[in-house]
Input
Amino acid sequence: MARIAYVNGLYMPRGEAMVHVEDRGYQFSDGVYEVCEVKDGRIVDQRRHMARLQRSLDELRIAFPMSPAALGVVLHETVRRNRVHDGIVYLQVTRGVARRDHAFPLPGTRPSVVVTARNLDTAANEKAAADGIAVITVPDNRWERVDIKSISLLPNVLAKQAARDQGAKEAWFVDRDGKVTEGSSSNAWIVTMDGTVVTRAADKGILRGITRSVLLEVIKAHGLALEERAFTVEEAYRAREAFLTSASQIVLPVVRIDARPVGNGAPGSIATALRKDFHRHAEWT
Ligand code: PLP
Output
């Protein structure tokens, strides 16, 4: 089946979908994005993703490209046209097309909007969750505004590739104090030996993941002890469990960090239970 992309008002075969060479996303990474999970053909937590998109756009002074209702229609239509049952929908908004100059273009320059959607290999994802994954740690060499979901992802790309080169699935960034910030495309969590779930506070140094926000509610509903604070790499090595969260992976147990087994080297019971219960707490549209 031919995949369809939405580009600035048109649904096009993906192979013919193009953006202008002077799009500021292409030239400067001057744009933001969102990735929502699609489950059973429905978009998960769209409202929260749209609220974060609004915030990212506001921080960069890019206008919201159309009404939120119209954007919701485009997201669902792209999911429908690509027959996505279980997968993701990707949305990117850039500052638009203008003659190359670092400063903002003239007011009225129309933001560019691209939406794509695709199925994910659910069997492979379930296997990864059942087996657990390996992560490596790398120095966090990103800019300070990682709270903005910017398409400027070069350090994340290099970190993910370093993980792949070492046979791992994800890289956890580590700040100058030796504390884990987040993954290259996910938030990072541990469970301490006394059963407390720990993840870094979202005030500085990380993206406020939507999956993270929803999972905080799941954790409370399960009556688990929770601490939003930074944790060191050493603490992660000694943890009972570790896991990561993202819209495309939900909750994924981590069983090795820098080639050392976490806990008994198998997915932990808390991570597994949280993964199982997540979608009961999420919103579906
Ligand atoms: N942190 C980073 C750097 C990410 O790129 C992502 C997702 O892409 C996340 C965290 C998780 O965010 P969400 O749960 O909204 O997918």
